[in-house]
Amino acid sequence: MEHGRPLDVVAALYGLLSGPRACERDWPAVRALFLPDALLHSELVLPDGVITSRAWTVDEFVSEAAEAYANEDGFWEREVARRMEEYGDIAHVWSTYEAHVGGPDGPPAIRGINSIQLLRRHERWWIAGVLFQIDRAPMTPIPAKYLSS
Strands of 75-87's sheet, edge to edge? Predict the structure, then answer.
């Protein structure tokens, strides 16, 4: 797996998380994309409508994702637009995504934005953190400027 550019790491992340229900993901490869102390954060809407945030270590995220993916009819996440900034050994990728359940070509089940922070160390790029939010239209729809690169 190539980690020579920030976008290689982002593409690997989407590719490793996607697949059919019966397909076990390569969780060691997912973990290998992240720095050991990386965190993933999300804004969540609870069943009562309250908005809260949640943070996971990479191991917590992998554990929960593995369980969820085993019980879904397949999950495919793909980038539909991006903006990237890079300076020296840091990069930020603002990645608009859509996720499909049941098959990779059906209508998206969810859309959102991943804010992915990367750091170059030891000749490669690592994910330092991910902050993501699901499109909660009509409350917080994704602005049109983030739907095209």
Answer: 51-57, 34-45, 124-134, 110-121, 90-101, 75-87
What are the structural domains, with CATH classification, of the chain?
6-138 (3.10.450.50)
Query: Beta strand pairing status for 110-121 and 90-101?
Result: antiparallel
pLDDT in tens, 22-72: 788 999 999 999 999 999 999 877 778 788 899 999 999 999 988 887 777
58 burial type by CB count under 10 A (0-12 exposed, 13-18 middle, 19+ buried) = buried
Amino acid at 37: D
CA distance 111 to 136: 9
Calpha distance 76→35 (Å, rounded): 24
